[in-house]
Amino acid sequence: MDIVAKCVAELGVQSAIEEKIDLLYDRLKEEQESGGAQGLNALLPTISIFINYASTRPKLTSALDWLRDTRGIESRDDAMWTLATLTLRQVVETGLAKHAEDAEKVTAWTEMRDAIAATVDAIASNSPAPVRDSASVGA
């Protein structure tokens, strides 16, 4: 199981991603188009809110423990940022699959995937993640 699938399983949010993919698309597009934060920082607050909505407290605690045990991530802010980044990757892949017939949505999902690619790759390889704004993800 890759790290993205493991994260989503730990959080227990896959069915919520599939159920709410259209709403997530709308919210993520709004964040991108708002003109505020750019790239990853524009997308992570929405995903952080989604995690808090879709996961349970025990599952979130388990996911935080998993990151501490497997990645050495002690800081709650860093852990939430990592969980949001990995969950965003699954949201994007689910969106690409569900909206494959809609060229406009495929373009938007692809842009989101490109915005997070380097960060997800760094997390997957257990490398230090690129500098990020921890204030962009609340928990």
Structural write-up:
The structure is a single chain. Helix 3 crosses helix 6 (76-98) and helix 5 (57-71) crosses helix 6. This protein has one domain (3-136). The protein is an all-alpha fold and 139 residues long. It is built from 7 helices and no strands. Mean pLDDT is 88; it is low at 128-139. The protein is globular and about 40 Å long. The protein has helices at residues 3-11, 14-19, 21-33, 40-54, 57-71, 76-98, 103-124. The longest helix has 23 residues, at 76-98. Helix content is 74%, strand content 0%.
Main β sheet profile: none
Tally of contiguous helical segments: 7
Number of distinct beta strands? 0
Mind telling me the C-alpha Rg?
A: 14 Å
Layout of secondary structure:
Blueprint: H1 3-11, H2 14-19, H3 21-33, H4 40-54, H5 57-71, H6 76-98, H7 103-124
Summarize the structure.
The chain is an all-alpha fold and 139 residues long. 74% of the residues lie in helices and 0% in strands. It contains 7 helices and no strands.
